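If you are new to this repository, start here. Below is one unmodified record pulled from the training split, so you can see the exact layout before writing a loader.
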Amino acid sequence: MSVPAASASNDPHHAMRASDADRDRVADALREAYAEGRLDVDEHNERIDRAYKAKTLGELTPLLSDLPQRHITAAPAPTAGGAIGSQPPMPAEYAPGSKITAVFAEQSRGGRWMVPSQTTAAAVFGSVTIDLREAVLTQREVVIIANAVFGSIQIKVPHGVVVRDEGTAIFGSRTGSDRNAAGDVPVTPDSPVVIVRGVALFGEVSVKYPKISKLGKFLGR
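And here is the target side for that same chain:
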């Protein structure tokens, strides 16, 4: 695994201090590249770590230098007014406000997909499964609005993700989340967070972590 090294440059733009927005844009581009299979998990994690530790735009630039040009959205040249260029919009299917609806039916979303900042799921006399185990979060904290009316919504999350349930149950149930735990992985300040909101009205909203085998427990995994 390797990360492109920063090259010396006399460009004053490279010495400019990076903002939180600049670091977030690099992280978003790296997550997209990982979702496409351009980076493996170790490369993705290392570059994300370096992105959030970067102090200048010059430290961010090499993290995207070997990716297709369309990924390089984090450190564009300043505009005439001195502002950093804006990030291109996300694809429509991954835009905030994405919806999953099941009415007298079953719906699921899983595999390798980009999880937007907010997803709305509705199960009315039906069921919805949201599988985040192979998904890529577009930011460290995302929101899922889960409304189950005489239906069920199951959210599958990998170990290491904290799920905070801020929803309401009315003659229904909400199970599986614990704001102080991340499955069998210790919680850290950098742990990804999924906030679940919405209402379970005569329905069920549940969170499921993968089961660990006895061998995995013995080996500490």
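Two things worth knowing about this chain: Residues 20-35 form the longest helix (16 residues). The chain has four helices and 14 strands.
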